[in-house]
Amino acid sequence: MKPSLKKYLELLLLAGLLLAVTLPFIGQAVHHDAHQWIDFAKVEMEHPLWHHLPDYDYFGINYPGNSYHDTHPRLQSLYLNFWLRVTGSLAEPLLHLEMLIFPIIAVIAMYFLARRFRVNAFIATLLLVVAPAFLVANHLIMIDVPGMAFWLAAMVFYIKGVDDDKLAYMLAGSLFLSLGIFTYYQDLSLLPLLFLYLLLFRKAGPRTIITLAIPAMLFLAFTAAHYAYYVTPPNFSYNTVEQPMDLMSIIVRTRGAITLVGGVILFPIAAMAVFSRFRWINMTAAAVLLFSVAWSLFNYLTGSYSADNLLILPWLLAAGTMILLYIARKFLNAVPLVMVGAGGGDDVFLGTWFLGVLFYNCVLLPYPSSRFIIPLIPPVLIYATKEIWKLWGPGKRRYAVAAAVICAATLALALAIAVGENDRANTHPAEAEWAAANYPPNGHVWFLGGLGFQYYMEQKGYRMAMVDGDGIQTGDYIIESRNNRWYLDRGFSSRLELVEQVDYQRRWPLVTEYMENRTSWLGRIGMVIPYGFEGDNLDRIYVYRVALSEEEAKACSVDDD
Amino acid sequence: MIKERQQENSGILKKIFDTFTKSGRARTISSLAVIAIATLAITVPFADQAFSIDGPETLYYAQRQIDQPFAQDLTDHFNNRGILYDSFIETHPKLLPIYLSLVIRVTGEPSEIPIHLSLIIFPFIGATAMFFLGRRFRVSGLAAALLFLASPMLMVNAHTEMVDVPGTSLLIAAIAVFISAVDRRNGWLLALSTPLMIAASQTFFQSLIVLPVALAYLIINRRFQLRYFIPIVCTGLFFGAYLLAIMTVYGQLPRFSYRTRLNTIQPASLLVHIRGDLTVLGGTLLMPLVAIAGFFIRWTIALVFVAASMMTWSWSVVKYSLGEYSLSETVLLSIMLPTGIAITYLVLERFGTALFRGESRNSRVGRDTIFLAVWFFGVLAYVMFLLPYPSPRYLLPAAPASILFLLAFWREHIRRVWLRFGLTGAAVALTLVLAGLLSLTAYNTANDGKRAAEWAVENYGDKDNPWYNGTFGFGFYLNRAGFRITPGVENELYARTMKPFPLEEPKPGDYIVYSVRNGAWVPYPSVMQRLRGDDVLLLYNNDLFFFPCSGTENCWWLSVFLPYDFRPGGKLSDQIMAWRIDETPNPLSEEQKELYRKVGITWIDEMSEK
Question: From the CB of residue A195, how many other CB atoms can be counted at a distance below 10 Å?
C-alpha cells in the first residue's frame, strides 16, 4: 500500500472511531461551566468584543456592571455565537455538532506530531482518541478540547515549518497558536515551549522568532486593550477558597495531578505495564503503592476515605508516578546530550512539555481536573507508543495485540466514564422539569445551584437565590441542587425549612461525582479520585420554604398579644 | 573666457574646501564654526520669547544675587502654590542665577533679549562637547553636535531661562573633557574637568550623575590610577562642603525633591511615570519617525517596536472609543511610546551583548557601548525614580548618550558613507522641523503669559489694589507691574513664615487677575466667597502643536502623559479671569469645596456647617 494512501486510510479510520465515540453523546445536556460560554455567546450577539457578562449572577453573588470576567478569552464563545447567528438555536445536539471540529483537528494534528517524533502515528493517535480525559471532554461544550486542538495544530505546523525551513508552515503554526491563546490561556505555555524547540535545534533566527512572536504580540495587544477598557488585566486565575501558593494546597493539587496522570490517560493497569521497563521506576512505584495503601487504609479506618478511595487511589497514584518518573528520566538523561550537542532534543522538548503542564496544574490551576491535564496527554502517549514497541515489538502480531488490548481497556474505561458523565449531565434538565411540574416559576420559587443546574433552571424562568437572600420573601421556595450548591448567609439559611428531598438515583455502576467521597471527574478542591464506584445518587434536590424572620416572628407575636 | 573663469572660480572654491577638510585643525575650526552658526540659528530667532515656566524663579534669584552673590534663598517669597516662605530655597543650586545676575547688572532689569542672548553660550558649550565626544566615539562629531542642537529636548528648552540646558551642557563638557584627559593621560585636561564637574553640579543637582558616569568610565576602561579619581573626589568634596554651608547658614538642606502628585514609590504611579518617560523619550529625542527609521535597522529592534506598537495601539484605540483620548492623543501616544520602548531596548540589547560577550567586552567598541549605556540608564533611572514627573527637560541629559548610540549604530550597520550621510542629514533636517514647530508653540505659549499680564496691567493696573493669582511668566510680569500676590489657602498647611496669620489678602473693592494655565492656586475661602466676575480674556492656540496645561494631564514641562499634542485650529489655551471682591460673601459651591478638599483643607466642611 502506498504510504500516502495508508496515511489517509489511517486518518479516516481514526476520524471514524472518533465520531463513533462522540456522536452517541451529542444529546448530552449542557454541563459544568459550559453555560457560561453560552451566556457569552448570547451577549456577543450585540457586543462581540465584550469580555464580561453584564450584571451577572454567579454562584449566588451578583457582579454588577462589567465586573464579571471569566478566566478565559472569548474565541470559543465567539465561535458559538457565529453558529447561533447561523442556526438561531442552542439545542444540545447542534451545540455538540458545532464542537466536533475541534477533536477532529486534534486527532489529525496528533497523527502528524507522532510522525514527527518517530513513533507509530496510528497507535499514538488511537490512544488519544480513546484516552478517557480526551474522549469524555469531547462531550462537553467547553474550551479544553478546542484549546488542546489548537495547541497540537500550532505545534505540528510550527515544528514542521522550523524543521523544513518553510515560512508558510511557520505562519500557519503562528495562526493556530494565536487561536489557541485566544481560546484558553493555558496555550500561552506554547510560547516558551516552542522557543525552547528553537534553542534545542539551533533554529532561532529572524523568521522563526518573528513568526513565534506574532501570537505573543497579539496577546499583549489584547491584554493592553483589556486593561484600557476594564482598568484591570484579564482574569488569569479563579477566586478559590484555597490560596494557590499555599504549600498544603500545592501538595494536595500535586497528589491530584499525579493521580489524574495515572488514571485518565490510559487504563491505569495498562499504564503501569507500559512504563514498567525500568526496575528502579517499578520499585519506586511499588513504594508509592504501599505507602498510599497504608495512607488510604488509615483514612478509611478513620472514616475519611470511602472504600473506592481506598481501592482506586493507590493504583492511580502508582501509575501516575511511573509515568512521571519515566518522563523525568528521559528528560534528565537527554539534558547532558543537548549540552554537548549530541542529540536528545526531542526528549528535552517532550519532557519540558509534560513537566511544564504538570507544574502549572500543580501550582497555578485551582484544583485537579481531568480536563486541565489534557495538554499533557500527547507527550505521555508518544512515550507510551514508544514503550509498547520496545516491550512488545518488533513482532508485528504481538505489538498489535498489545496495542489493541491497551486501547480496548482504555476505551472501556473511557466509555464507562462518558456514560457516567452523560447521566450526571442529563440529571439537570430532569431536575428542572421536575421543579417546573411541582413548583412552577411564579416569581416565588428560587434555585440554589450553579453550572448545568443553573442553565436549565434559568431556562425554565427561575431566579437565582443570592447568598444574602436578597429579594427572597417569607413563604418563597428555594430548590437546591446538592452537587452544585453554594452556602447562604447564616442569618438567612436559619430561616429555611426543608419541605422535601428528591434523589436522582444512579443507574450506572461507575461514579464520576460524589461529594462525600471527594470523587470528581471534572474537578473539585481536594479531589481524591476522578472516578469510583461508591455513591448512592447522581444528585439530590432539596426544597426549602422560607420561614418568618426573627423580626417578623416578633411582630406576629405582638399582634397576637 | 567664461569657461576659464568658471574653472578659476571652482579652483578657488576647491582650495577653500580643501583647506577646511584636509587639515585636521582647519576641519575642527570649520566644524565649530558650523556649530556656532547652528546654535545661533536655533536660539536667536526666539531671543525675545517671554519669560515662562520656572524661568522667572531663576530670575528672582538672579536679582537677589546682584547684591548678595552667594545668597541661596529668596526672602518673603511665595512659591508657585501661593505659599509664603520667609526663606525659600529652591530645588537647584545657584550658579546660573549668579551668571544671570551679571547680565542684569549690565541691563538694569531682567529683559528677555539680553537674558536669552547671554544663555546662548550654554547650547554652544553642549554642542561643542558633543562634537568632541562624537569624535571620541568614532562617529561624526559634527553630526552628533547638530543632532543634539536639533533635538526638541534641547532646542525648546534652550529658549527658556531654566537650569536644564546650562546644566546638561556643562555636564557633557565635563564628561568630554574628563574622557579626553583620561584617554590622552593629560593632566591639564584633568585639571580642567574638575571645575567643569563642579560647575555642572552647581547648576542643577541632576548633574551629580557626572560622578558615577566618570567613575564608570574609569572602571570600564580599567584606569585605576589615583590621579584620575581626583576630579571625582574634588567634585564630591565640593558638593559636600556646599551642603554643609547651606545647612550652617540656612539651617536646612537644599530641596532635593518636589511635592508631587505622582508618588514614585507606588507601583501603579511608577508605571505611569515610566510610561510617560518612555513616551517623552520617543517623542522628543528626535523626530519620532527619524528615531523609528534610524534605530530599527536590526530586526530584533523592529520586532520590539512592532510588539510595543500593537500594545499601545490596542490600548489607545480602546481609550479613544471610550472617549478618553482624542484622535491626536491616540496617534501620538501610539507612535511615541513604542519608539521610546524600542530605543531603550536597543541600548539594553547592545549593552547586554557588549557585557556578556568576552570579545565584545574587551574591545574598544564594546567598552564604549557599556559606557554609553551606563550613562543612558543612569539618567533614565534617576528620572524614573527620583524626579517628580516625566519631562523632556529632565531627560535631556540622556540625549547625548542616545545620539552617540544612534550614530555608532549607523556606523556599524550602514557601510555606505553616502547613505549614512544622507540619513544623518535627513535626521537633522526632520528633527529640526519638529523642534522648530514645537519651539514656535512654546514661544507663543510663553508670550501668552506676557500678553495676559499686559492685558491685566492695562485694565486693572490703575486700580487701588490689584492682585494676581498665578505663577510662571504671568506672575512674574504682574509682580513687576506692582500687582500683589493672593495668598494660597495651603499656607494653612505648609507656610514657613514668622508672619502672623491670616496673611494679608484682597479686601472688598479690590481686583484679582487669575490665569487658569499658569499654575493658579486656591485662595482662602474669605476671598473665594466674595469673587464676582468682572472680565475674561480668552487666549487661543493657533500653532500646529499644542501644550495643554491647566493642571491636567499633560504639557511640555509636566508631561505625565504626552509631551505635546497635535490640535491645530483655535484650541483654547488659557483663560484669564478678572474678579472684583464683593462685600457680601456667598456660600461655597460643592465644586469649590472639592478644590479645598483636594489640596488637603479638611476644615472646609466644618466651616460650611458653621
Answer: 16
User: Using a CB cutoff of 8 Å and minimum separation of 24, what contacts does B71-75 make?
Assistant: B72/B246, B72/B249, B72/B250, B72/B254, B73/B250
Q: Grid coordinates 454562584 are at which residue? A: A59
| Res B45: pLDDT | 95
The per-residue pLDDT for B414 is: 85
pLDDT for position B318: 93
**C-alpha triplet B429, B430, B434: angle, nearest 5°:** 120
Is residue B610 pLDDT above 60, yes or no? no
Number of helical H runs and strand E runs in chain B:
26, 7
Chain A positions touching B345 (Cβ under 8 A) are none
Nearest Cα residue in chain A from B313: A221
Question: In a 10 Å sphere around its CB, with 0-12 CB exposed, 13-18 middle and 19+ buried, how is residue A58 labelled?
Answer: middle
Strand segments (E) across B37-156: 74-78, 84-88
As given in the structure block, the three cell numbers for residue B555 are 504639557
**pLDDT, position B261:** 46
Instruction: Look at residues B428, B431, B395, B398 and name the one whose alpha carbon lies nearest to residue B556.
Output: B395
CB atoms B318 and A209 under 8 Å = no
Instruction: Give the ipTM.
Output: 0.79
CB distance B314–A209 less than 8 Å?
A: no
The DSSP call for residue A10 is H
Phi, psi for A502 (deg, rounded to 5): -125, 125
The per-residue pLDDT for range B187-213, each reduced to its tens digit, is 999 999 999 999 999 999 999 999 999
**What gap in Å lies between CA B503 and CA A208, rounded to an integer?**
71
In chain B, the residue whose alpha carbon lies closest to the alpha carbon of A215 is B307
The candidate with the shortest Cα–Cα distance to B384, out of B171, B156, B560, B166, is B560
Helix (H) or strand (E) holding A504: strand A496-505
Note whether B303 contacts A210, CB cutoff 8 Å.
yes
Q: Which DSSP helix (H) or strand (E) runs through A496?
A: strand A496-505
> What average pLDDT does this structure show over B485-496?
87
Chain A residues within 8 A of B323 when measuring between CB atoms? none
User: Does the global pTM surpass 0.80?
Assistant: yes
| Nearest by Cα to B523 from B507, B500, B539 | B507
Nearest to A146 by CA among A103, A89, A197, A83: A103
Residue A175's φ and ψ, nearest 5 degrees, are: -65, -50
Between chain A and chain B, the number of residue pairs with CB atoms below 8 A apart is 39
In b/e form, how buried is each residue of B453-475, taking b as 16+ CB within 10 angstroms?
A: bbbbbebbbeeeebbbbbbbbbb
Q: How far does the CA of residue B233 sit from the closest CA of chain A (Å)?
A: 47
The closest alpha carbon to B388, from B516, B255, B520, belongs to: B255
**Chain B residues inside the 8 Å CB shell of A220:** 307, 310-311
Report how far residue B607's alpha carbon sits from residue B555's, in angstroms, rounded to the nearest whole number. Answer: 35
Helix ranges restricted to H, B562-602: 590-598
Residue B12 has pLDDT above 90, yes or no: no
Q: Give the one of A206, A210, A225 whose C-beta lies nearest to B318's C-beta.
A: A225
What 3-state DSSP class applies to B523?
A: strand
Contact call for residues A219 and A181 (beta carbons, < 8 A): yes
Mutate to test the interface with A, among B315, B319, B324, B334 (most CBs of A within 10 A): B315
Residue B550 has pLDDT above 70, yes or no: no
Q: Give the distance, in angstroms, between the CA of residue B106 and the centroid of all CA atoms in the same chain.
A: 27
The arithmetic mean of pLDDT across residues B140-156, rounded, is 95
CA nearest B471: which of B591, B551, B547, B396? B551
Helix (H) or strand (E) holding A80: helix A75-87
